[in-house]
Amino acid sequence: MFQGIKLLKLYGWEKLHCKSIKKVRSKELWEILKINILLATSGLVTYSFPFFVTLTAFGSYTILSGEPLTPDVTFSSFALFSIAMTVISKLPSALASYVNALISSRRLQDFLSAPEVEKRFEDGSDDIGDARGPLSPVYEEVNTFDDVTIKHSRRFLARKRRESDTGGLLPATPLPLKKDSIPSPSPSSTSPSDQDSDNKRINIDGLPSNVAVKIENGSFSWDLDRNVPVISNINVEIPAGKLTVIIGPLGGGKSSLGQAILGEMRTLSGSVKFRKKKNTIAFAAQKPWLINGSLRDNILFGQPYHAKRYQKVLKACALQTDIEILPAGDLTEIGEKGLNLSGGQKQRVSIARAIYSERSIAVMDDVLSALDMRIGTQVFEEGIVRMMRRSRQTVILITHHLQCLHKADHIIVMKDGKISRQGTRQEIARLDPELYCRWKRAVHLVSESETESEVESETMREERQYLLKQVSMQQMEGEDKSKPGSKDGTFTQAEDREIGPVSYRVYLYYLRAIGLKAMALIIATYLMRESLRMSANFWLSSWSTAGLQAKQTGVEAESMTLPYLTGYTVIVIGCILAASLANSSLVYSIIAAAKHLHAGMLSNIIRAPMRFFDTTPVGRILNRFSCDTAIIDRSIIETADNVLFYLLSCISALIINIIVMPMFAVAFLPVLLGFIGLQKYFIASGRELKRLQSISKSPVVAHLTETCDGLSTIRAYRAERRFLDVAQQRVTANTTAFTYLWCTYRWIGVRMDMLGSLLVLFASVGTMWCAIYSDLDPSLAALAITDILRVSSQVNWLVRYTTDTEIQMNSVERVKHYSSLANELYDGTDPPPDWPDKGQVTFSNVSLRYAQELPVVVEGVDVEFQPGEKVALCGQTGSGKTSLALSLFRILEICQGQILIDGIDITTVPVEVLRQALSIIPQDPELFTGTIRRNLDPEGRSSDIELWVSLEIAQLKHVVSGLQKGLDSEVAEGGENFSVGQRQLFCLARAFLRKSRILVMDEATASMDIDTDKILQEVVATTFADRTILTIAHRISTIMNFDTVLVLSDGKIIEQDSPMNLIGKEDSVFASLARGNE
After folding, report:
1. Where is this region: Disordered (predicted)?
2. What is the mean pLDDT of the chain?
3. Pick from 38, 323, 338, 1021: CA 20 to 30 A from residue 80's CA?
4. Are residues 376 and 509 in the same domain?
C-alpha cells in the first residue's frame, strides 16, 4: 500500500484500503487472541498446580496417616513445592518458545531449501554456459540438457512478476536522424552473420564464436503452476559485439525475451546458452532501480573507480552538469529510489551504470522512453553506440524508437509472444516489405520535422532546474531542522530516537488505549487473586498451628482435618477462579488496546501529507507496523502479567515478614535501596539498547525492500554477494544490540540474586531472634521464611520484567509518534451529491507550497477553465505544471488565493470527497494487490457490464478475457504481472468508471508507444469529449488539438492561448518547446 500511497491519495481510497487492512488486522488479532487464551490456560494450569499438589499432599497425609498437620511438615513441604513450581511455572513459556522456534525453523527450512538462481557464468574450463531459466539447483552439461530434463529434473523459484513490456511499431519520442537513416536494401548489402558465414569459428563446445547468446526452441513462463508460456518457439542467436534491437507492439513479449535472457523466467522447453567464461551481463530496467546511496555509488555499483572512464560515461549520459548542481557533487545521496532525481535523470544513472560496468552483454529495457529527444539521441549515439558497441559489447536494446534501427546489426520483432521477424534491416525488408515501409515512413516523418538547432535540450535544463529545486528544498529543511544535508550531500535523515526514560505521557497514552474500566478490572482481579493466595497460606498456617496444639494436647486429628481441608479447598477454588478472571481481563484488554493503537497509527499515517512519504523510507514505516506492533500484540501481555504477579507477590511476602517481625523493615530498607539503585542503573542501559535494537531494524527492512525491488538488476550484475554482505552487516548491527541487551539481563540477574540472598539471611536471623527472645508462633515464622525464599528469586524477575515494560514501551512510544503526525485537513462541508456537474475550474491568485517551511512553487495563478475545455500545461520540469495540476487534489498546500470547482472553494470540501470527485491518469501507474475487479472499482459501485465496457474502451478486454478468472484474476504486487503500458490503460479504465467531470493526465503517455497513445487520444476526443481535461505532456503532438495551452515558468503562467496561435508566434516559448520536441 505504501508503495502506491500517492495514487491511493489521488483516488481518495484511503478509507477503503484502511478498511481492508483493518479487516485483515481483525483476523490477525483473533488468531493472536486464541494463542493468548491457550497460553493463559496453560499458565492457569501451572498456577493451579501447586495448590492441587498441596491440597492432595496435605489431605492424603492427614487422612491416611491420621497425624495432625504440624508447621515442620507443612512449611518444609511447602518450601519444596515452591522451589519445584519456580521451574514448572516456566514450562508454558518455554513450550511456547519451542513451538515458535519449531515453526520458524520449518519456514526457514522451506525457504532455504528452495532452488536458487543458477550461476550461469561459473569459473571453469567450459566456454559455454547454460541458462535454462533462473533456478536450476544443479549444473548439467549442455549435451545432456533437453526437454525431458527440463520436465523432470528442473526446480526453480520464479519471481512473482511478469513482463514489463511497452513498445510499438511506430516511434514515440522522436530521435533526430539523417534522412538516410534506414537505407534501402541493396543486393550487395550483407549482414554481419553473412559476412562471417563462410569462415565461422566454432569453439570446442559447438557455439559459434560470433554468437553471444543462443536460444533454441525456447518457451518461457512466469507461472509456476501452469505450463502456459508467455513467449514460445524462440529461436534466436544474438550476435556477439553487436547491437541487437528488439521491437514490437504493446504486450508483444519484448521485455519477457530480455528477462528470459537474464534468467528471470521459468523455462518450459529449450535452452539459453552463453559463452561461459567470457560473458558477463549488465541490465538497465525500464523502471530504473537505484540504491539509497550517492550518485557515484549507483553508477559504480561495486566496480572500482576509474576517473577517466567515469568521466566519459558521465559525458555520454549528459550527467556532468547535473552533478555540478549537487552540494557534494556525485557523492551526494540521491535518496530512496532516487527521490531527488527526475525520472529522466534516474534513467540516465541506470544507463550510466550499465555502460560503466563494461559487461560483455548489456540488456537495456526501453531505457530511452523516459528521455527527451535530444538527451535520448546523445545517450544512444554517445553511450550505446560509441562506447558500448565500439568496445565490442553485445547490446540488446528493447525499445519502440524505430530511429534506433539505423544502427542495429540485428533486429528482432516480437508479436503475441513470438518472434515474427528477425535479421538485419535488409533481410526484414526482403521478408516483410510492408513492415519495412512502415518503418521508413515513420522515420521520414521525423526527418521532415528535424531541427538543426544546436541549442541545449529544454528537458536537460528542465531536469537540472528540478534537481536544483529538490536540493534547495532539502537544504532548507536541513537548516530549519538542524539536520545534515546542506554541505555533505547527506539527505537521508536519521530515524528519530528518544533519549532517556520513556515519558509518562507514553504510559498514559497506552493506559488510555486500555481504558479506565478495563484497568480497574485488571487491578481488582489481580489483587483478588493475590489476596486469596495469601489467605490460602494463612489458612495453612492456622491449620498447622491447630495441628501442633492438637498433637501437644492429644486431641484426635480427624476432628479438625475435615473443616480445615474443606476450607482450604474452597479458598483454592476461589484463587483459581480469580486467576482465570485476571488472565482473561488482561488478555482481552491488551488485545483491544493493540487494535486501537494499530488503527490509530494506520488512520493517522495514511492521512499524512505526501511530503512525509517522500522523505521517509518505506522500511522505516513497515518497521513500526511489523516489529513494534508485534511487541504490543504479544510481548506486553506476558510482561504485564508477570509484573503484576511478581510485584503483588513480593509486596505480600514483605508485609507478612514485617507483621511477623517488625524489625525486618529496618533490615529490608538498605536492601531495598540496593534493589532500586541496581534497577535504575540497569534500566538506563537496557532501555537505550532496546531503542538501538528497534532503530537498527529499520535499515534491515529497508535494505530487504530495496533488494527485492532490484532483484533482476542485482542478479544480472552478479552482485548478490555484495548485497548479502550489506544485509549481514545490518543484521549484525541489530543482533549486536540484542546480544548486549541479554548480557545486561545476565548482569542484573547475578546481582539481584546476591541481594535476594541477603533478604533470606535477614529473615532467617530475625526469625531465630524472635523465636528465642519472644513468643513467636512457629507457623507464622515458617510462613515468613517460606515467602521470603520466594522473594529472593521473584525480585530478580520483577526487576527484569519492570525493565522489559519500559523497554517495550519504546514500541508504544514509536507508535505514538506516528499516531501524532501532522495530517492533511480531511474535514469540511459536503458539497451537493452531483458536484461537480459542470467541470468549471477557477484559479484565483493561487500560490502553492509543499509545506509551510518550503518555498512557494506556484505563485499568483489567475486562470479559468470552462466546462469541457481541454487544457494542456507545458513548461520546464520544475516550472510548476505538475504542482498546479495536483493542487486540484489538495496534494499541495494552498497558501494564498482560491481554487473553485463549479463555484465551490475546494478547501471547504472534505479532501476525500474532493479527490473521489476527480480522476487522474498518472505518469507512474500503480496497481494494487488483489483482483482486477477491485483495482478498477474498489468501492463496488459498477456492474460487470460497466467493468467490461471500461476495459473495452481501454483496449484491455482481450487481455483480461484471456485470463483464467477474468475480472477476478489476481494482480501481483505493484501490478508486475502487467506491462507498464497495460497498467496505464487500467488507469484509463478507472477514469472512465469514475465518471468525473474533471480529468487530470500527468504525462500519461510517457511509457506508451504511438499505437497506445492513439488509443488514449481517441478516448479523450470521444468518450471524454464532455469532460474538462487538464493534461501535462512532453509530446507536443498529443496536445495540438486542445483548446488551451498554458506555459509555466518558475511557478507562473507566462503564456496562455490556443496551440496554433502560440506556435505561430516566433518569440513564443511554446513554439520553442514544440521545435525542441521535434
Report:
1. 159-204, 475-494
2. 79
3. 38
4. no
Residue of 307, 285, 283 lying closest to 296 (CA atoms): 307
Query: Which band of pLDDT confidence, cut at 50, 70 and 90, is reported for residue 732?
Result: very high
Q: Examine the domain organization and report whether 624 and 711 are in the same domain.
A: yes
CB 1014 within 8 A of CB 1007: no
The single-letter code of the amino acid at 556 is: E
How buried is residue 964: exposed, middle or buried, by Cβ count under 10 Å (0-12/13-18/19+)? exposed
Is the pLDDT reported for residue 244 higher than 90? yes
- CA–CA distance, 773 with 769 (Å, rounded to integer): 6
How would you classify residue 820: left for phi > 0, otherwise alpha for psi between -120 and 50, otherwise beta? Answer: alpha
Q: ∠ CA(759), CA(764), CA(768), 5° rounding?
A: 150
Is there a single domain that holds both residue 537 and residue 425?
A: no
Confidence label for 865 from pLDDT (cuts 50, 70 and 90) = very high
Considering the domain architecture, whether residues 391 and 250 belong to the same structural domain is answered as yes
CATH number, domain of 414, equals 3.40.50.300
Cα separation, 990 vs 919, in Å, equals: 8
Whether the pLDDT of residue 436 is over 80: the answer is no
Residues 258-294 have pLDDT tens digits of: 988 888 888 888 888 887 555 689 999 988 899 888 8
Cell of 116: 536458487
Same domain, 133 and 36: no
Give me the CATH number covering residue 81: 1.20.1560.10
Same domain, 91 and 238: no
Between CA 596 and CA 148 the distance in angstroms is 57
Please name the residues in contact with 410: beta carbons below 8 A apart, sequence gap of 6 or more: 191, 192, 193, 238, 239, 242, 243, 244, 245, 422, 423, 424
How far is 675 from 683, CA to CA, in rounded Å?
A: 12
Range of the domain at 389: 128-156+202-448
Q: Answer for the pair 907, 894: CB distance below 8 angstroms, yes or no.
A: yes
End-to-end, the C-alpha distance of the chain in Å comes to 39
Within 366-474, strands assigned E span 394-398, 410-415, 418-423
Pair (530, 440) in one structural domain: no
Q: What is the dihedral of CA 173, 177, 179, 184, to 10 degrees?
A: -90
The per-residue pLDDT for 362 is 92
Give the helix/strand (H/E) hosting 872.
strand 870-875
Residue 495: predicted pLDDT: 56
Residue 187: phi, psi to the nearest 5? -60, -30
CA distance 388 to 363: 12
The whole-number pLDDT of residue 193 equals 38
Return the pLDDT at 664: 79
As a whole number, mean pLDDT of residues 929-935 equals: 90
- Given this model, what pLDDT does residue 508 score? 93
Residues whose CB falls within 8 Å of the CB of residue 62, separated by 6 or more in sequence, listed in order: 68, 69, 547, 557, 561, 565
Rg (CA), the chain: 37
Distance CA 891, CA 153 (A): 54
| C-beta of residue 367 within 8 angstroms of C-beta of residue 284 | yes
The C-alpha atoms of residue 730 and residue 723 are separated, in whole angstroms, by: 11
Residue 141 lies in a domain: yes
> Do 260 and 400 have their domain in common?
yes
**Is residue 56 in some structural domain?**
yes
The residues that bridge with 847 in the sheet, in sequence order, are 896
**Which element (helix H / strand E) includes 650?**
helix 636-660
* Lowest pLDDT segment from 553-567, 580-594, 753-767, 860-874: 553-567
Amino acid occupying residue 434: E
237: nearest Cα among 202, 204, 188, 284: 202
For residue 602, being part of any structural domain is answered with yes
Number of compact structural domains in the chain:
2
Position of cell 484511503? 14
Cα dist from 1015 to 1005, 1009, 1038, whole Å: 10, 10, 11
* The residue to which cell 507477590 is assigned: 649
Q: Residue 496 region, left (φ>0) first, then alpha (ψ -120 to 50), else beta?
A: beta
What is the Cα 438 distance to its own chain's centre?
A: 44
